[in-house]
Design goal:
- The structure is a homodimer of 202-residue chains.
- Chain A is globular, with a radius of gyration of 20 Å.
- In chain A, helix 1 packs antiparallel against helix 4.
- Chain A has nine helices and ten strands.
- Chain A has a seven-stranded mixed sheet. In chain A, strands 1-3-2 form a three-stranded antiparallel sheet.
- The longest helix of chain A has 16 residues.
- The first copy, chain A, has two domains: 67 residues, Arc Repressor Mutant, subunit A, CATH 1.10.10.10; 112 residues, NAD(P)-binding Rossmann-like Domain (Rossmann fold).
- Chain A is an alpha/beta fold and 202 residues long.
- At the A-B interface, helix 1, helix 5, helix 6, strand 9 and helix 9 of A face helix 1, helix 5, helix 6, strand 9 and helix 9 of B.
């Protein structure tokens, strides 16, 4: 099962829990959230212990188990590097905090942006990155700088002992093998749409 | 084959073309871009006509074919709704234009942001959305407004005749069945990382 699908199910279960739903069958889950029902049935079969024959799954129990697998049962302090438009947007993005990702330090190389706090989070000069990441026990870094600075920032994060990097810069960067690196390419999502539009025009 | 993988291959081939590489084998492609080589071989086998036995694939020919399938051989005008931090970041995101997605009108309901141009693109009041989308033949809309306005904006885009919507608001929205809707949840990417960090801590 892909980790991405686990994330999607976790979101659906969170939503159901908020709506006060106690149990759900794989078919109800698929219908309600517009998912592939055969796939949902197959995936959730792994979690049989949270199921009740003829009824479905306990929403809260299954959600807690998936969150644990995804490492979402705890809080992850995150370092955000780059506080331009994208960095600001990511900082204010509500989805991160809801899943336990807490941006606990922001770094930028523009002195005008530094040495102040935003919603209680310090914005620091990039040269303090190494020290702060270690002092705060940060394992996850988000790269939100322009393409031309992305590799240098990645090298800094690696030297600071970061274990995982999420890269939003539209450029392929390299990191040491022991660091998990994930590139986010926002235009890939648009291409899914243009594929269908082009197909229906053919 | 998933559309997402087609997008990834297209990017790799673009990069190779920029580097002056004329032909590539599926194994070289996999190694260079850190992809699953069995998967690449299987996927590219569909495009045998662009292959040369014992050598691999013609980079430019294969790239052009994949771009055509993805609808990237033409330009798509895009409407961006919401011009806060996230909207600004998306507007300046270099990856969109490179793939042929051109934001050709921006809409916001804050009068202070409207009736001016940014890099030659007009920022217009949200109430002009319907007229402008039609006049400009826009088929793709990007929703970059706060969660609480996302559904209303989606309804407006649908009424204006938009065919595909990319939603960045961290909320599930509904659109008529004939509209392709894609939600982008930025925290899902972070969860892939926390999954591995949590696993290695177990």
């Amino acid at each position: 099962m892909t980790i991405r699908r686990l994330s999607v199910y976790t979101r659906c279960l969170l939503q159901l829990e908020e709506d006060g739903v106690k149990t759900v069958s794989s078919q109800e889950l698929a219908e309600r959230f517009n998912l592939n029902s055969a796939q949902v049935r197959k995936d959730l079969a792994y979690f049989g212990e949270f199921g009740v024959r003829g009824i479905g799954y306990y929403v809260s129990g299954l959600k807690a188990e998936l969150q644990k697998i995804l490492g979402l049962h705890r809080e992850w302090p995150v370092a955000l590097v780059g506080f331009g438009n994208l960095g600001s947007a990511l900082f204010h993005y509500k989805g991160f905090a809801r899943q336990g990702f807490r941006i606990s330090a922001i770094f930028d190389d523009d002195p005008a942006k530094c040495n102040r706090e935003v919603n209680g989070v310090p914005v620091l000069p990039a040269r303090e990155l190494g020290r702060e990441v270690k002092a705060r026990g940060i394992q996850i870094g988000i790269v939100a700088v322009p393409a031309e600075s992305a590799q240098a920032v990645t090298d800094q994060l690696a030297a600071a002992g970061i274990k995982a990097i999420l890269n939003f810069a539209p450029v392929r960067i390299r990191a040491p093998r022991d660091i998990r690196l994930k590139d986010v390419d926002l235009s890939i999502e648009l291409e899914t749409l243009s594929f269908y539009l082009a197909k229906s025009a053919r």
